[in-house]
TrEMBL record:
UniProt keywords, alphabetically: Fatty acid metabolism, Isomerase, Lipid metabolism, Lyase, Multifunctional enzyme, NAD, Oxidoreductase, Peroxisome
Ranges of residues in domain 3-hydroxyacyl-CoA dehydrogenase NAD binding: 299-472
One Pfam family matching this protein: ECH_1
Main location: other
Taxonomic source organism: Esox lucius (Northern pike)
Protein's name according to its UniProt entry: Peroxisomal bifunctional enzyme
Length: 719
């Protein structure tokens, strides 16, 4: 039953318990329960103090985010918290587990706060596209000062109970029973003046240079936020706290919240929150993997200690897995021996650990992996080499060892074929740097067992990754969608755009880096190798612009042939101070190269508007997403969106490519694709996906309904 219960302990301490598992969110029933309990407390002369706690050791995870989708009903939070603060009996919050968002705002309305040492506190509303609008933006700076409140509210970060104590958010921290301590504390403060404990009546202590502190904070959130509205609104609310009386500050808080609440960004960020939780549960086939048994991995091996392999070793060791790190090339092994311990130490430091939990041993031979429970192969993208390794692993490892490949797009089934037990083979596609990036694509081959998939998914979670199960096709989900996106960017250069123009359009949309800056960072030779393997590259003075019956841009191949591989060679789509340089400068050589290329191919350059750059790059990418859903390579649009937000820099406040298509309007995306396909009939990636057409024909259902639509569609097409 979701509610808040009221009881009286030893005749004098009223106990209000929030009951709404799993996080005791402040749903309508809970708010009603608290409001009723406050009334009962006021009426009961025997009650001299009040304690508020949450059931099952969790104080409160904030407002019930699911309720945001519908009209708000029931008692609002603001007057409810005011009523608590205004009470003439001391109110103490017993914070166990978590006090987040509206949960912490509720606690800030109490006169005292006692926290368990393991509790986490924070105002993460900004991550949902909102601000702490139950008085949090006005009370917190009055309690801890403006600079600290700016930090907590604009980042939304969770803090430990000990940090909360240092900042002055909580009054006491205990390793024992926080509820028991809160009850004793409540009794001990009966009769003490409550005026100074009411945060709304306190002045906001601001630094003398308050304007410059706020302006600096604003500049920082603009730069970090890449177009996100909520952090800017948070600074606005804190400016009001610092410069206006409380009541006017509350009015400003309310106004800003109303603007945010109705913005597409808040909907996108809340969708992203739930998507992240949905994707952990489904396989592309639609089956749930989380019902399968998993193996607990204590010892694993990583084969290949290049950049990816080293990152994977560190990620495993930080998750407490012992690792055998194997590299056959002496020089690379020596480099790994030096770099891995340093990376590990830094990673452990970031997690507040003195020593990394996993033990690492280095080896130059595969025979040393015989005792491990799981292997991750991370050698470069060469199918023949990978198959040789998998066939050798099948003989060296003990039966039952799960064999994984970190391939970024090769056929998992061909690798499985090289072993005796294909059911134990899955893909684990990490993103560079593997010990930092949150995304993991777990690739299910047609013969991978649910147990092997579940083991890889759970191991990913242990490593702190957002694991998404995807199907087996060239490029899986992320890289398959990247292909049409990059292709459009290259075509735009042929037609008259510059790399800067394309990058600025994409960065203006919210990507941290445009496609050409990103390509310079990761190295142009990565894609070159893939195109060579696919038989697409041609060498010669006059390479053609058609390959395998489709339009093809040889521009990136020519850049590679000329040794312009990006940052590592100091030259790419931009120029850098030298090999390994980081600052991209526009390069007249590239301008000249493009002009010569266009002239040679008889291409007349034209001015290309930002709108066209965005539509062609983003809709080509999204269109491939619809094909992926149709092919059953991703279980739902949420999976694609999570992959793009966590792995490819898609701005979170735009939800992800599939969510964005829904916000733009599916009919409009379809119309634009038809338009561009008409102008570029030799580009198959611009041909609208038939799933997109069917969704439009069905009245463009919201993204949350696509999964159901696709499964019905599939059943229908099988009849
Ligand atoms: C005036 C109005 C102002 C409102 C301000 C607010 O309060 S906005 C909400 C602020 N709160 C948050 O942002 C907290 C969001 N939740 C989390 O960060 C995490 O869920 C957690 C609380 C840290 C717990 O993490 P954990 O890993 O333990 O569990 P899950 O994340 O898997 O969550 C379990 C299920 O609970 C659902 N859920 C979590 N928080 C809320 C919430 N605030 N409202 C509704 N539902 C919530 C979550 O979706 C999971 O559900 P499943 O169905 O099991 O997937």
């Amino acid at each position: 039953m979701k509610m808040a219960t009221y009881s009286v302990l030893s005749g004098s301490v009223a106990l209000i318990t929030l009951q709404n598992p799993p996080v005791n969110a402040l749903s309508e029933a809970v708010r009603t329960g608290i409001t009723d309990a406050v009334q009962r407390t006021l009426k009961d002369p025997q009650v001299t103090s009040v304690v508020i706690c949450g059931q099952n050791g969790r104080f409160c995870g904030g407002a019930d985010i699911r309720e945001f989708a519908g009209p708000m009903s029931g008692p609002p939070l603001v007057p409810m918290i005011h009523a608590l603060e205004a009470m003439e009996k001391p109110v103490v919050a017993a914070i166990e587990g978590l006090a987040l968002g509206g949960g912490l705002e509720l606690a800030l309305g109490c006169h005292y706060r006692i926290a368990h040492s393991q509790a986490l506190l924070g105002l993460p509303e900004v991550t949902l596209g909102l601000l702490p609008a139950a008085g949090g933006s006005q009370r917190l700076p009055r309690l801890i000062g403006l600079p600290a409140a700016l930090d907590l509210i604009t980042t939304g970060r969770h803090i430990s109970a000990s940090e909360a104590l240092k900042l002055g958010i909580v009054d006491q921290v205990t390793d024992d029973n926080a509820l028991k301590m809160a009850v004793e504390f409540a009794r001990s403060v009966v009769g003490q003046p409550l005026g100074p404990r009411r945060l709304s009546t306190r002045p906001c202590h601001s630094p003398p240079d308050v304007d410059s502190v706020l302006d600096q904070a604003l500049a920082q959130v603009w730069q970090r936020g890449r177009g996100a509205l909520a952090p800017v609104a948070c600074v606005g609310a804190l400016r009001a706290a610092a410069t206006l009386p409380y009541a006017q500050g509350m009015e400003k808080e309310r106004e800003l919240m109303a603007t945010l609440f109705n913005s597409g960004q808040a909907r996108a960020l809340q969708y992203a929150f739930f998507s992240q939780r949905v994707v952990g549960k489904w396989q592309p086939s639609g089956a749930r993997w989380d019902n399968s048994t998993t193996r607990t991995i204590r010892k694993a091996a990583v084969i290949g200690l290049g950049t990816m392999g080293r990152g994977i070793v560190v990620a495993l060791a930080l998750a407490g897995v012992s690792v055998v790190a194997v590299e056959s090339q002496e020089k690379q092994l020596a480099a790994a021996r030096q770099m891995v311990p340093e990376m590990l130490q830094r990673g452990a430091g970031r997690r507040g650990l003195d020593t990394p939990p996993g033990v690492i041993s280095f080896s130059s031979g595969l025979e040393d992996v015989s005792e491990v429970e799981l292997v991750i192969e991370a050698v470069f993208e060469d199918m023949a080499l990978k198959r040789r390794i998998f066939s050798r692993l099948a003989t060296v490892c003990r039966p039952g060892t799960v064999l994984c490949s970190n391939t970024s797009g090769l056929d998992i089934d061909q690798l499985a074929e090289a072993t005796q037990n294909p059911a134990l083979v899955v893909g684990m596609h990490f993103f560079a740097p593997a010990h930092v990036m949150k995304l993991l694509e777990v690739v299910c081959g047609p013969r991978s067992s649910p147990e092997a998939v579940a083991t890889a998914m759970v191991l990913g979670k242990r490593m702190g990754k957002v694991s998404v199960a995807v199907g087996n096709c060239p490029g899986f989900v992320g890289n398959r969608m990247l292909k049409p996106y990059m292709e459009q960017a290259n075509f735009l250069l042929e037609e008259g755009a510059t790399p800067q123009q394309v990058d600025e359009a994409l960065e203006g949309f919210g990507f941290p880096m445009g496609v050409f800056r990103m390509s310079d960072l990761s190295g142009l030779d990565v894609g070159w190798r893939v195109r060579k393997e696919a038989g697409l590259t041609e060498q010669g003075v006059e390479p053609t612009r058609m390959r395998q019956g489709q339009r093809y841009s040889p521009l990136p191949d020519q850049m590679c042939e000329g040794g312009r591989l990006g940052q590592k060679t100091g030259r790419g789509w931009y120029r850098y101070d030298g090999p390994g340089g980081r600052v991209a400068r526009s390069d007249p050589w590239v301008q000249n190269f493009l002009e010569t290329y266009r002239a040679r191919h008889g291409l007349v350059p034209r001015r290309i508007a930002t709108e066209e750059i965005l539509e062609r790059c983003l809709y080509a990418l999204t269109n491939e997403g619809f094909n992926i859903l149709q092919d059953g390579v991703a279980a739902g649009p949420e999976d694609i969106d999570v992959i793009y937000v966590f792995g490819y820099g898609w701005p979170r406040h735009r939800g992800g490519p599939m969510f964005h298509a829904g916000q733009v309007g599916l009919a409009r995306v379809l119309e634009k694709l038809e338009h561009y396909q008409h102008s570029h009939p030799d580009v198959p990636h611009l041909k609208p996906s038939s799933l997109l057409r069917r969704l439009v024909a069905a009245g463009s259902p919201p993204v949350q309904k696509w999964r159901e639509f696709i499964s019905k569609d599939r059943v229908h097409s099988q009849l």
